[in-house]
């Protein structure tokens, strides 16, 4: 039987890291097994689902390169199917209509709260046959009593839950929309999903879903419930403790492969290897190497992984990812190589290469003071004369020229490098000084220094 998996996000907010990680695991598992990966949009929570969220999810998945083989299937487009199947369970006596109003349920909940008990639907309509004609109703699943529900989780082994702990849960709301547990099972069965990999927060849903699979005489898929991603404070990852959406990371210049690599590695390992290409992840991914312990999100580690992937970029690829309009006298290749070696993200790379855009630069006010140190101007003037007579602007030649100048004047490197870097780049964040001079070349370096010296 070939592998069929799905990623089934609910469009109720931005695509968050926990969801992306389950998407990655499903994606890698499917690619490894040469199966089919389906994208399914679970938008049956009508009040919370939005088009904006759906569009952001689709955009982020595409950007990440988590490409589905089929779909996206949208659940709200097939309400008739869920309704028909819920009614089928009613006619088989496996589900029933419940006419309890929201007010009545709220009252029962309040009562349970007062008595410090956990609210449980009292099965009021479970066996009633005198149905009112004109009242709206929900359809509830008739959860069997005294049953032990058992399933095997590839990560957690045998899981047993007694049905008496479950409610007669709603499968179809009064507005005709199915609940998550119902529509998920209908679609998993219809799409012949073989493996479901999702967060452990769904463990309690799985037992309900298994009952629904049984009621349709369908075999449930194989389940893997992966650990949750936690923030540094060990509570569930959220905006408050450091989580961001995929779109935020994109805007900050994190590469998609860095997110895939970092998230896949969070909860999965292959020896001590930290940096993986997508090809390596696909070939090395093994569902049995997932870990049960919760994963802690660490943005610094993500940025480190990002810097490692940035170093591996081809210059021509990096060039397409940043918005720098290089001046035609600049050594673009050298600029990109130098920026790659130091850059943690595309934004900082862009910032560090801004000095390559125009013939002259303006110096930020905050750095101007550094240039006012006594003697600075005289040092720069001296070095300017050395550069004028320098023929080759290869890095090694610049290095020797600078060192000879410093020796002759008995100066320390920073006494020259610091002001020079500000004069040539307008800031302190740039590649090293030898590289900067070599990147700019003779003409631009001389022009910028002479403009500072007002020659
Ligand atoms: N729509 C569900 C969610 O976003 C899917 C869970 C599942 O994979 O079954 O949590």
Question: How would you sum up this structure, described in words?
Answer:
It is a single chain. The chain is α/β, with parallel strands linked by helices. It has three domains: 4-230, HUPs (Rossmann fold), CATH 3.40.50.620; 239-315, Glutamyl-trna Synthetase, Domain 2 (Glutamyl-tRNA Synthetase, domain 2); 321-453, Arc Repressor Mutant, subunit A (Orthogonal Bundle). Helix content is 46%, strand content 11%. The protein has helices at residues 17-32, 51-64, 79-91, 102-114, 180-190, 203-215, 246-251, 256-265, 278-284, 299-311, 315-321, 332-342, 346-352, 365-368, 376-389, 395-409, 413-425, 433-453; strands at residues 4-7, 36-41, 70-74, 95-98, 138-141, 148-153, 157-162, 170-172, 195-199, 222-226, 229-230, 295-296. A three-stranded parallel β-sheet has the order 1-2-3. Strands 4-5-8 form a three-stranded antiparallel β-sheet. Strands 6-7 form a two-stranded antiparallel sheet. Strand 6 (148-153) and strand 7 form a beta hairpin. Helix 12 packs across helix 18 (433-453) and helix 15 (376-389) packs across helix 18 (433-453). The longest helix has 21 residues, at 433-453. It starts with a strand and ends with a helix. The mean pLDDT is 94. The structure holds glutamic acid. Residues 8-10, 42, 180, 184, 198, 202 line the site of glutamic acid.
């Amino acid at each position: 039987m070939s592998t069929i998996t799905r990623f089934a996000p609910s469009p109720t907010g931005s695509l968050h890291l926990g969801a992306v990680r389950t998407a990655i695991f499903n994606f890698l598992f499917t690619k490894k097994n040469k199966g089919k990966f389906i994208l399914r949009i679970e938008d049956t929570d009508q009040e919370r689902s939005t088009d904006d969220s759906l569009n952001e999810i689709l955009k982020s998945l595409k950007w990440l390169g988590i490409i589905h083989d089929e779909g996206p299937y949208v659940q709200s487009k097939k309400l008739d199917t869920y309704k028909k199947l819920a009614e089928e369970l009613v006619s088989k006596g496996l589900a029933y209509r419940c006419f309890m109003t929201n007010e009545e349920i709220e009252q029962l909940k309040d009562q349970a709260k007062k008595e410090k008990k956990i609210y449980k639907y009292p099965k009021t309509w479970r066996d009633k046959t005198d149905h009112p004609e004109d009242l709206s109703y929900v359809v509830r699943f008739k959860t069997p009593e005294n049953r032990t529900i058992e399933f095997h989780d590839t990560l957690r082994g045998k899981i047993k839950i007694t049905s008496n702990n479950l409610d007669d849960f709603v499968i179809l709301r009064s507005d005709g929309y199915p609940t998550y547990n119902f529509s998920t099972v209908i679609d998993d069965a219809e799409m012949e999903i073989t493996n479901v990999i999702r967060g452990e927060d769904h463990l309690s849903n799985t037992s309900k879903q298994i009952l629904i699979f049984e009621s349709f005489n369908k075999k449930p898929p194989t389940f893997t419930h992966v650990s949750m991603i936690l923030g540094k404070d060990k509570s569930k990852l959220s905006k408050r403790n450091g989580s961001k959406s995929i779109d935020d990371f994109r805007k900050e210049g994190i590469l998609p492969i860095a997110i895939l690599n970092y998230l896949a590695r969070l909860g999965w390992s292959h020896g001590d290897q930290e940096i993986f290409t997508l090809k390596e992840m696909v070939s090395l991914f093994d569902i049995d190497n997932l870990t049960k312990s919760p994963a802690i999100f660490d943005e610094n580690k993500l940025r480190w992984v990002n810097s490692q992937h940035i170093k591996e970029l081809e210059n021509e690829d990096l060039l397409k990812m940043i918005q720098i309009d290089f001046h035609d006298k600049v050594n673009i290749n050298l600029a990109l190589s130098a920026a790659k070696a130091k850059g943690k993200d595309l934004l900082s790379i862009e910032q560090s290469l801004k000095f390559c855009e125009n013939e002259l630069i303006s110096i930020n006010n905050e750095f101007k003071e550094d240039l006012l140190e006594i003697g600075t101007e005289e040092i720069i003037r001296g070095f300017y004369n050395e550069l004028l007579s320098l023929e080759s602007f290869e890095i090694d030649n610049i290095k020797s020229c600078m060192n000879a100048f410093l020796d002759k004047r008995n100066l320390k490197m920073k006494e020259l490098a610091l002001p020079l870097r500000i004069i040539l780049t307008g800031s302190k964040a740039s590649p090293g000084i030898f590289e900067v001079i070599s990147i700019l070349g003779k003409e631009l370096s001389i022009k910028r220094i002479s403009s500072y010296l007002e020659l």
